[in-house]
């Protein structure tokens, strides 16, 4: 069996233990004689797993019973519209912090439903190389919520501090760094994340929302675009993405078995230190455009001396069994997405490739 080092930005690598568990249960899940993709979502076996995943998510995050866990579809991109549809009206204002491509996409959708105040914006000449300082964040007087994006997949920036965002409900898109480190859950009223980076496969989006925030949702919304539909029916109003939730459940168990977020953070800290050290000690051959205090631990972006060398790097990396390293089409360069499933050995092997490539292509 051939396994590559997978640095894809999403869908991304899954823990090998999770894949092996799913493989062993593919034809006969929990003694049903069926795959989890074949069982009824109304059956007791599926119901038990479904609710176990919800409880595991809360346990790992440190959430109490005031939180509801929703399993939605459509990726984080659907949440860009679903969030303001549920909470923002033409006479109200929501605050957004613009730190990258996906926060800009969220802002675009929110403007369809009400007023948007940009509390901070770190874009410069079409790119984002840093996270705003606390004193740069200027909130409006009475926002219905404040929205932030914890990690920016394309530009390789990440909040390395958790800002003070006033007393309004804070909503965070954590799609690309969810459960990569502990976080102050008490600061948030809602978080959401597409599963396909740190939680599982594409197909399910996890929304965690506090009950007091949920009470403020609009009425008379389309059924499947109303958070209350999911909350009141345990995300079982219609057929959920059963297989994606199953893999999510296995991944959450894996996180708990590793030691939870404190243990995961320690591993991720080591990985990013190894990789950024290799970049910074390359005498300028590899250049990270992100300011050091804003560098992502999940999406490490860097450039080579020329675009021709970058194309050669991508090709030779693939030949060496390292895939998914080409930067996003909008910015170019190289990107290593070292999510939770990437191991320290994967990163060390990738750095060895980088060192060898530099020697051969000076």
Which characteristics define this entry?
362 residues; 16% strand; Aspartate Aminotransferase, domain 2; Aspartate Aminotransferase, domain 1; 2 domains; 15 strands; alpha/beta; 7-stranded mixed sheet
- Can you write the helix and strand succession as a string? EHHEHEHEEEEEEEEEHHHHEHEEH
Radius of gyration: 21 Å
What is the H level of CATH, i.e. the homologous superfamily of the largest domain? Type I PLP-dependent aspartate aminotransferase-like (Major domain)
Count of individual domains: 2
Main sheet: which strands, in order across? 2-12-11-10-7-3-4
| Overall helicity | 25-40%
The rough form would be described as: globular
Tally of strands: 15
Name of the top-level CATH class of the largest domain: Alpha Beta
Q: What integer is the average pLDDT?
A: 97
How far is it from the N-terminal to the C-terminal residue, by CA? Answer: 35 Å
What can you see in these coordinates?
By secondary structure, this protein is α/β, with parallel strands linked by helices. It folds into two domains: 17-257, Aspartate Aminotransferase, domain 2, CATH 3.40.640.10; 260-360, Aspartate Aminotransferase, domain 1. It contains ten helices and 15 strands. The strands form five sheets. The chain has a seven-stranded mixed sheet with strand order 2-12-11-10-7-3-4, sandwiched between helices. A hairpin with a 2-residue loop joins strand 5 (123-124) and strand 6.
């Amino acid at each position: 069996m051939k396994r590559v080092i997978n640095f894809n930005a999403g869908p991304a690598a899954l823990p090998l233990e999770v894949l092996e568990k799913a493989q062993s249960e593919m034809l006969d899940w929990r003694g049903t004689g069926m795959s989890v993709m074949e069982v009824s979502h109304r059956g007791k076996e599926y119901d038990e797993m479904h609710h176990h995943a919800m409880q595991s998510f809360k346990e790992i995050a440190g959430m109490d019973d005031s939180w509801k866990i929703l399993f939605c579809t459509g990726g984080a991109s659907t949440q860009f519209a679903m969030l303001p549809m549920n909470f923002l009206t033409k006479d109200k204002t929501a605050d957004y912090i613009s730190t990258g491509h996906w926060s800009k996409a969220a802002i675009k959708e929110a403007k369809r439903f009400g007023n948007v105040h940009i509390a901070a914006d770190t874009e410069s000449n079409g790119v984002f190389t840093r996270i705003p300082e606390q004193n740069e964040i200027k909130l409006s007087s009475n926002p219905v919520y404040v929205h932030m994006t914890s990690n920016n997949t394309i530009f390789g920036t990440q909040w390395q501090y958790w800002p003070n965002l006033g007393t309004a409900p804070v909503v965070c898109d954590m799609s690309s760094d969810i459960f990569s480190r502990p976080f102050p859950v008490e600061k948030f009223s809602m978080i959401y994340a597409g599963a396909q980076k740190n939680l599982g496969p594409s197909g399910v989006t996890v929304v965690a929302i506090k009950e007091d925030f949920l009470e403020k949702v609009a009425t008379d919304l389309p059924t499947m675009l109303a958070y209350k539909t999911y909350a009141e029916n345990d995300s079982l109003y219609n057929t959920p993405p059963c297989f994606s939730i199953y893999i999510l459940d296995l991944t959450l168990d894996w996180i708990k078995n590793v030691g939870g977020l404190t243990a995961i953070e320690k591993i991720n800290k080591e990985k990013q230190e190894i990789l950024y050290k290799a970049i910074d000690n390359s005498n300028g051959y590899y250049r990270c455009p992100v300011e050091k205090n804003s560098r992502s631990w999940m999406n490490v972006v860097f450039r080579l001396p020329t675009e021709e060398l970058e194309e050669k790097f991508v090709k030779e990396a693939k030949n060496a069994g390292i895939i998914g390293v080409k930067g996003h089409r909008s910015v170019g360069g190289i990107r290593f997405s070292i999510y939770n499933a990437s191991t320290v050995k994967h990163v060390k092997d990738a750095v060895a490739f980088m060192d060898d490539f530099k020697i051969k292509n000076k």
